[in-house]
Design a protein that fits this description.
The complex is a heterodimer. Chain A folds into two domains: about 55 residues; about 90 residues, Cytochrome Bc1 Complex, Chain C, CATH 1.20.810.10. Chain A is about 75% helix and about 0% strand. In chain A, α4 packs antiparallel against α6, α6 runs antiparallel to α7 and α7 packs antiparallel against α9. The mean pLDDT of chain A is about 95. Chain A is built from ten helices and no strands. Chain B has a domain of about 35 residues. Helices cover about 55% and strands about 15% of the residues of chain B. Chain B has three helices and two strands. The mean pLDDT of chain B is about 85. The chains are: A mainly alpha, B alpha+beta. At the A-B interface, α6 of A face α2 and α3 of B.
Chain lengths: ~210, ~60
């Protein structure tokens, strides 16, 4: 195969494009800009850390099943870890959102980073909701019977039936987590490509 | 008596939660407390100094 033919392959072109857009030193940098040393920049990575615990405990719950999380001590513990890591996930994500909103984090060509964050937030809410209705307890019965009226009023009940436990569980443990994790990976990669948004005061000195 | 029974007694969870109702707004005290803690955390994150910041500035 000639050099020209190799250069024309889609794998070669994709590799060159990815390497140019996100070289290793940009993907995992040794240092960060000075303005990043503020507590407000901590909440994005706190959200990521909570997401790792959410997924790890979710995997354990999926492996062992409802009887385990309802009846055994260790099952109760893992179930509680799953709930409380979700609480921390949303707590940190909303503070991250406030911080990025007030520093207009979509500046400097970062609109797609902002939008992937917004969509991840919406997908996370749907994931949490389907989790609440998949608990298989009185709480989930109450939430699903209340939610069905709201969703039926929108016409969405024909496709998304909150009283169908199998459907809700599949959305919760397969479709929505795949979406949330894929969007999170994209969001983090975009942050690495564009860099962390500078505060307003130092915009000129950083971007000039 | 387990130690966590004493801790749980501080926050009674075995009866209906308290709600605040003002015109169209209806919110549980628990949810309002979480929102208040988030606002306090947000302000603290803006105002509290980050460890090592002075050292970095000195090195530059």
């Amino acid at each position: 195969m000639s050099t020209t033919e190799i250069e024309r392959q889609w794998t070669t072109r994709l590799r060159h494009r990815v390497a140019a857009k996100l070289p290793p030193e940009k993907l995992l940098p040794d240092t960060q800009p000075t303005y990043v040393s503020s507590w407000i920049y901590v909440f994005g990575v706190t959200t990521l850390a909570a997401l790792v615990v959410v997924i790890a405990t979710g995997c354990l719950l999926a492996i062992r099943g409802p009887q385990w999380w309802h009846e055994s001590d260790i099952g109760h513990f893992v179930n509680s870890l799953h709930l409380w890591s979700v609480e921390i996930f949303f707590f940190a994500m909303v503070i991250h959102l406030w911080g990025k909103f007030f520093m207009a984090a979509w500046r400097g060509g970062r609109a797609l980073t902002w939008m992937t964050g917004v969509v991840t937030f919406v997908v996370s809410i749907l994931t949490a909701f389907t989790g609440y209705v998949s608990q298989t307890n009185f709480d989930s019965q109450w939430i699903s019977t209340q939610a069905k009226d709201g969703i039926n009023a929108t016409g969405g009940g024909a496709f998304f039936n909150v009283l169908n436990l199998g459907q809700m569980l599949m959305w919760h443990i397969v479709l929505l987590p795949i979406g949330a994790v894929a969007l999170t990976v994209l969001h983090v990669l975009l942050v690495r490509v564009k860099g962390v948004v500078p505060p307003f005061a130092s915009t000129n000195e950083v971007e000039s | 008596m387990y130690w966590y029974t004493a801790v749980a007694a501080l926050v009674p969870l075995d009866h209906l939660g308290r709600y605040l109702h003002w015109h169209w707004l209806l919110i549980s005290v628990a949810n309002l407390a979480v929102i208040a803690i988030m606002v306090v955390t947000f302000l603290a994150a803006l105002l509290l100094p980050f460890p090592g910041r002075r050292r970095r500035k000195e090195n530059q």
